[in-house]
Amino acid sequence: MDMVRTQVPRRFYPHLFILSFDREVLALAHRLESEWSCVWNVDKEDPGSHPEFVKAICVPVKHLTPQLVQEFHRMDKQVMTYTCNTPQQADYASNTGADVLMTDRPAWLVGYLKKGREPE
User: Fold this and answer.
1) Distance (Å, rounded) from C-alpha 47 to C-alpha 58?
2) In angstroms, rounded to a whole number, what is the distance separating the alpha carbons of residues 71 and 73?
């Protein structure tokens, strides 16, 4: 965290996200720098049991549902999903209302999403 503090201008702090599967790591990060957004990566645990201080959850696309997104949006939390590497995964995640799509192929995903938004 010290490296980020020295290398990243303070104006970018509201846009920093700390992601972890480990609740203790997130709790420590939140105590050290509460201005940064903590994101709980969920794999096998119940996303509803998230730490209260997190700004978002991040779930595998295979576990993402529109109901899950709506539930977390009602709690004013963002929903991120991983890993959207195919058109089907990207379309599904977009249609659920997820706020952030993560991929191993960022250039492809940006191009794919732009193409889908262009008028015919």
Assistant:
1) 9
2) 6
Q: How deeply is 2 buried, as exposed, middle or buried, from its count of CB atoms within 10 A (0-12, 13-18, 19+)?
A: exposed
Say if pTM beats, i.e. exceeds, 0.90: no
Cβ–Cβ under 8 Å, residues 112 and 84: no
Q: Residues 2-117: name the CATH superfamily.
A: Phosphatidylinositol (PI) phosphodiesterase (3.20.20.190)
CA distance linking residue 14 with residue 3, whole number of Å: 17
Tell me: pLDDT of 57 over 70. Answer: yes
- Give me the residue spans of the domains in the chain: 2-117
Q: Best-predicted range by mean pLDDT among 5-19, 23-37, 42-56, 91-105?
A: 91-105
Euclidean distance between CA atoms 18 and 41, whole angstroms: 10
**End-to-end C-alpha distance for the chain, whole angstroms:** 46
Q: pLDDT grade, residue 118 (50/70/90)?
A: low
Q: Residue 94 is encoded by which pair of tokens?
A: 């977009």
